[in-house]
Amino acid sequence: MAFLKVLKDGIPIDPLPPHKSRDDSVPHAPVRNTHLTPDEEQLALKNSLRYIPSHLHHVLAPEFAQELKNYGHIYMYRFRPDFEMRAYPIAYYPTQCKEAAAIMLMIMNNLDPKVAQFPHELITYGGNGQVFSNWAQFWLMMKYLSKLTRSQTLVMMSGHPLGLFPSSPTGPRMVVTNGMMVPNYSTRVNYDRLFALGVTMYGQMTAGSYCYIGPQGIVHGTTLTLMNAGRKYLNVNDMSGKVYISSGLGGMSGAQAKAAVICGCIGVIAEVDTCVLEKRYKQGWVQEIIDDLDHLIARIRLPKLLFLINNF
């Protein structure tokens, strides 16, 4: 695990990593609407270049501008790490305290392609729940964490590390805030503008706080909801033979299929994204994949028929 030592070096600029185009082997976030004026596009570019030494601006400015034009956000794909992104044993992270190592581990788990919805855009789940706004922030964050002691607190604001501040062993090792929008101005258009400018991001519940645990985090709630729906609307405590139809297997939605299994009913979960469907199937959240409607109906009727025979 010696390669993890690079985490303490910060943004890799010497030498500058080669340019990386989008990798089609993983799903990507949809193109975002920016709603930026030409002057604001220049400001978005300046905001992204603040992480980079000035002597490299002539190389990276056109590249970042192209990302903004093509994708509605500057993700800095060039700085995406080459090593396998996943949670490694905590003892191997180069830190001054175990709390910092735990945060590193959680961040890398959130960005694991087996976990994250759009890993190359640093989105864990929910379509826009980001860990960081760009890859430069990832490296800068890791550098700060490698220096963090139990006498300091790291302050984060929408993916941007504000710095290490004097604290105490009983204080928090990190304070995180994401997506701060004044209510009078919290419209979708304003959010899209500020996101494109790189000054805010939406961390969802557990993406930007680094503690995402996938569908397992909501299985219990989904199961209880399904059971109580049966009690309230179907007047039954036993869901055997009942058919539960829903849609979506991205993010935490794999819990829907598992909840149906736990409740004993027949779960049919529609999903249009083949990559997401196969991912949940391989992970065990989905038991079967059916792409033919007639076959699906016949498959639904089979366990219902068995249930009726068993209860004859």
TrEMBL record:
GO molecular function: urocanate hydratase activity
Residue intervals of the Urocanase Rossmann-like domain: 214-301
Superkingdom of origin organism: Eukaryota
SUPFAM superfamilies linked: Urocanase
Cofactor: NAD(+)
Location of the region described as Disordered in the Swiss-Prot/TrEMBL record: 14-33
A UniProt-annotated Pfam family: Urocanase_N
GO biological process, one term: L-histidine catabolic process
UniProt keywords, alphabetically: Lyase, NAD
Span of domain Urocanase N-terminal: 85-211
Protein name per the record: Urocanate hydratase
Source species of the chain: Trichonephila clavata
Phylogenetic classification of the source organism: Eukaryota, Metazoa, Ecdysozoa, Arthropoda, Chelicerata
